[in-house]
Amino acid sequence: MKRLSESTENIDKGTEFIIGNLLRVGVTFAGSIMLLGAILFLIRHGSEFPKVYNFTFDSFNITDPNIVIKQLFEMKSIAIMQLGILILIATPVLRVVVSVVAFLYERDYMYVIFTSIVLAVLIFSLFS
Length: 128
What we know:
The chain is mainly alpha-helical. The chain has helices at 2-45, 65-73, 77-106, 109-127. α2 (65-73) crosses α3 (77-106).
């Protein structure tokens, strides 16, 4: 019985290590991409004066990855920053996916169900 508990504890520590690194790398990578986009934006538009007398809001379609990808090929700095935001949004979703796989590996089906419900809610909220 002690041996099973030690094995489960090792799996839990490994899962925590993987999830912790996933979150750390995801946030760092997203932040680096957003910083790159901001630097590129300042290089291209840093010397321009803002038009405060005629304020207009340019809406950027961050919800459509196809537009972001198209603008990435055009090397638009806003698209690079949007990619960073999309990666930042995808990081916790990927964490939930890893958790589902880990619970399946542990054969903890109750948590598989709960985590799958959380994943379904996340995916539904992203695409609705």
